[in-house]
Amino acid sequence: xxxxxxxxxxxxxxxxxxxxxxxxxxxxxxxxxxxxxxxxxxxxxxxxxxxxxxxxxxxxxxxxxxxxxxxxxxxxxxxxxxxxxxxxxxxxxxxxxxxxxxxxxxxxxxxxxxxxxxxxxxxxxxxxxxxxxxxxxxxxxxxxxxxxxxxxxxxxxxxxxxxxxxxxxxxxxxxxxxxxxxxxxxxxxxxxxxxxxxxxxxxxxxxxxxxxxxxxxxxxxxxxxxxxxxxxxxxxxxxxxxxxxxxxxxxxxxx
Length: 255
Hints:
8-stranded mixed beta sheet; 5-stranded mixed beta sheet; alpha+beta
């Protein structure tokens, strides 16, 4: 069986997140310690220079229900360990789970699905642990980099994984690119692969499913939020299904 290291590296390459990266090792790194410096956290829903970002339009396209299990919404008040909902645009990793109010979802870590901490994400992306923490804690803005990895979750028994990433089309000189157009670029080398607009996590995402070419079958969900394209990439191994893989990702209620 191919290592989790190679599988996650393939996902990062596919999503355009820094080609040729070293990937995660088989052993999950220990939790690192990081003390956030004093700074004002970046305001969510920011636009560059006061210019509104282009809005996605689905008025002339069919929007279908996603086949994924919705799960129960995450109610902040009911969580044993309440996350910091005033997190930065990159989201936050707390208490073994990942919270992203910028898009509105949470990835719940448990005994089967686990999330890499900053050290693990650093190994996957080729950054240092401090550089990852700088993104998570808002010291470095996602608006200032072409691509970034916000979170990596993996299933410990099979190696299936989920990568949450941001693409900044402005820095690729494609400022008005929509999430759908981004996925259409991803799918252009495949026959009979079409982008759909789907209801997922209470919002309209664009989505594609790509065949297994040795690294696992992939399904991507993408949405444009302000100036960033947010991409969730599921890679499935063995008998894992998309429905099962998505059960640990739920809509995050922050208000």
